[in-house]
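REVIEWER CHECKLIST
Item 1: Sequence provided? yes
Item 2: Single chain? yes
Item 3: Sequence as submitted:
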Amino acid sequence: TSIFTNLQKNNIGKAFTMGLSQTVEHEKLKRYLVRGQEIAEKHTIVFGDMLKESDLPVPMSYDTAVTGATMRIFSNRLIAFHISALNAYSVVLYSQAMSKSMRADITASF
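Item 4: Structure as written out by the authors:
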């Protein structure tokens, strides 16, 4: 369940950062969001492969839900706050997943 939950969280986080990166004007924050997308994609591949190896379903990606809107809605500070909160939550979820897993090969993937 931890793998599935973390995979879903990464899919949602990737779509969230993808949408926000389209609207951000500050270049450094935009690079940070794009880097977050890349990390989420990497983790999605790793966790998805684990589920596929065990013939378990892989949750769908939410990338198609992101529109091409570029109108700025949120301030850069609000976006940075939300992203840092999501990063902290990710650390919590990964820590819980590692403590629950009895398999060393899965724990190493977190």
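Item 5: Key structural point noted by reviewer: The CA atoms of residues 67 and 95 lie 33 Å apart.
Item 6: Recommendation: ____
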